[in-house]
Amino acid sequence: MVKKKIILNILLAIFWTVLGTGTIVLLAAAIRIKDSKKCSGIEINIKAVSNNFFVDKADILKIITSNSDGEVKDNKVSSFDLKGIELELEKNIWIKKAQLFFDNNEKLQVNVTEREPIARVFSSYGTTFYVDKEVSMLPLSDKFSARLPIFTNFPSDKKVLLPSDSSLLKDIISISQAIQKDSFYMAMIEQIDITPQNTFEMLPKLGNAVIVVGDAKNIEKKLAKLRLFYKEIIVKAGWSKYSEINIQYNNQVVAKRKGVEDVRADSLRTLQLIQLIADNAKRLSEDSLQTIIQDNEKNSPNSNMIQQSIERDENSDSSQVVEPVSSEANVENKKSAFIVKQNLDKQKKTNKQLPKLVLKKQSL
User: Fold this and answer.
1) How far apart are the two ends of the chain, measured CA to CA in Å?
2) β-strand 189-194 against 137-138: which pairing, if any?
3) What is the pTM of this model?
4) pLDDT tens for residues 67-112?
5) Is 34-114 assigned to CATH 3.10.20.310?
6) What's the pLDDT score for residue 9?
7) Residue 164 C-beta-side C-alpha neighbours within 13 Å
8) What is the distance, to the nearest Å, from the Cα of residue 232 to the centroid of all Cα atoms in its chain?
9) What b-and-e string marks burial along 129-141, b requiring 16 or more CB atoms within 10 Å of the CB?
10) In angstroms, rounded to a whole number, what is the distance separating the alpha carbons of residues 281 and 287?
């Protein structure tokens, strides 16, 4: 009984050994046969987002050909270093991943996944680039220009960014993705400016209001508030009523009417200007009276003489005319300003008459 078990085990061992060896031989033969076969062609598949192709089949074929022994077709399958070609393809900044293999018909299958740009960024130095989900800075392509949210005043044009700039790019990605989720925001927002404090302000395509966003936190909630404000307020009040719409605060939208602060500033300036004009007019009037021919004995004006002179010379040519003062500041602020200008004609030596004051108001 024991001998039979030993013999059975030996036979099983021999069987599996022969089977394994045969399998290896067959696989080696199949590989040799396959390697001896020639490539029947190439098929390139590019996976792009929204059919935005920043790299085309010609670019990919050029890289494959340059890393193969001659032309791809009719070349031996064994001559292709598929892994090496994949690495070369992925050196292209626009190619995120590449995968190559031969199918059962010896056709080379090439699957390429493009990088997806999320936003277009303009730096404060005049350079521009795209940025993708992986926070990679992508150059512009001469093949296609993507329609994406535009961000301006990025503080760096370096390839190696500071941690603060990398964090800012992540905020840009978050805001851009939130905007692209809704066609309303894409149609409404012209561009997003980056402030010196690394916060964000949006400029709409309609109206002149600046939309203060703040940082990128809770950006979807902020945009939802903005959408509600436009739906409930702007459509009724008009596109030009507000100069600023602030959505950075929780559960509220703070809107500033256009020109409110300017009107307040202009009113204060007007009051100051009127007071200054009044003081100048008073001073000039007093100076004019003091220069009139004075009493020789008391060295002081004679009130009777002044009264008689005014009554006698109603049609006198001597006058004082108030003329507007022209200055760029006052013209820009559209203020009315006046100064008394004394135009005294030559007086007859025998008349000893006083000039008559005539105030004429003119507006700038």
Assistant:
1) 128
2) unpaired
3) 0.60
4) 887 788 888 888 889 999 999 999 999 999 999 999 988 899 999 9
5) yes
6) 74
7) 7
8) 26
9) bbbbeeeebbeeb
10) 10
**DSSP-assigned states of every residue in 28-42:** HHHHHHHHHSB--EE
Side chain identity at residue 284, one-letter code? L
Beta-strand relationship, 117-123 and 95-102: unpaired
Report the alpha-carbon angle 228-153-195, nearest 5: 55
Q: Which two tokens stand for residue 348?
A: 């007859």
| Domain 117-258 grouped into CATH 3.40.50 | yes
Tokens representing residue 158 in the block = 């370096």
By residue count, the chain amounts to 364
> C-alpha 100: how far from its chain's center?
40
Do 34-114 and 117-258 share a fold?
A: no
Strand ordering across the sheet containing 189-194: 137-138, 128-132, 117-123, 150-154, 189-194, 200-204, 210-214, 242-246, 254-257
d(CA 350, CA 352): 6
φ, ψ for residue 316 (rounded to 5)?
-65, 150
Position 294: which residue type?
Q
Centre a 10 Å sphere on the Cβ of residue 328 and count the other Cβ atoms it contains. 7
Give me the sign of the Cα torsion angle 58, 60, 63, 66: negative
Q: What angle do CA 159, 165, 171 make, to 5 degrees?
A: 120
Lookup: tokens for 65: 């050909």
Q: Considering only 55-64, 195-204, 224-233, 331-340, which range has the smallest mean pLDDT?
A: 331-340
Helix (H, G, I), strand (E, B) or coil at 124: coil
Q: State how far Cα 198 lies from the chain centre.
A: 12
Exposed, middle or buried: residue 155 (CB in 10 Å: 0-12, 13-18, 19+)? middle
Region for 130 from its dihedrals, namely left if φ exceeds 0, alpha if ψ lies in -120 to 50, beta otherwise: beta
Domain segments of the chain as ranges: 34-114, 117-258, 261-357
pLDDT in tens, 41-55: 999 999 876 666 788
What are the backbone angles phi and psi of residue 47, rounded to the nearest 5°?
A: -95, 105
Q: Is 251 exposed, middle or buried (0-12, 13-18, 19+ CB in 10 A)?
A: exposed
